[in-house]
Specification:
The protein is mainly α and about 160 residues long. It has 6 helices and no strands.
């Protein structure tokens, strides 16, 4: 019953339509950055489109703390923290997918800009977006895997 691979688990939680929509928005933000250069307008649009900031970091921190409480405590406190952890993961999951998708779209349009204009700023955008995307993707995967492991643990404990 619990013999799912990690990749199958991640594909189960991957929403293609949402990612395609936000990746397209990220491409348009990248095109705006290409047209307007170092203007603050594309940066502000990117910040709002990706949701990157405290509203993205807070659910991840809350989920991490609740995971630790659910994993290391016993009894009722553990069960309450597990329920809250599941709610925090459900809250953080779409925000992380949105940010990953927007930065992927930005990275793609910046790569095209770099290939066409040979701009060092486009190369910096590609590299920083790839780094940030890698970190966000790792956090997204870690949240899903830990949620799956906790659900296995509590499913076995409730038998």
């Amino acid at each position: 019953m619990f013999n799912k691979s990690t990749l199958a688990l991640l594909f189960k939680h991957f929403d293609k339509t949402v990612c395609l929509k936000w990746s397209t928005i990220g491409v348009f933000v990248g095109i705006l950055g290409w047209i307007w250069g170092q203007s603050k307008i594309p940066t502000t649009i990117l910040k709002f489109a990706s949701g990157f900031g405290w509203m993205l970091i807070a659910p991840m921190l809350v989920a991490s703390i609740l995971f630790l409480v659910a994993y290391f405590s016993k009894g009722r406190k553990s069960h309450l923290a597990y329920g809250d952890f599941q709610n925090a993961v459900a809250w953080a999951h779409p925000k992380l997918l949105r940010a990953i998708s927007v930065f992927l779209g930005l990275m793609l349009s910046a790569a095209v800009c770099w290939a066409v204009t040979d701009s060092i700023y486009a190369l910096k955008t590609v590299l920083l977006s790839a780094l940030l995307n890698g970190v966000l993707l790792w956090i997204w995967a870690a949240l899903l895997v830990t949620a799956d492991e906790l659900s296995k643990r509590f499913a076995l404990a409730n038998l």
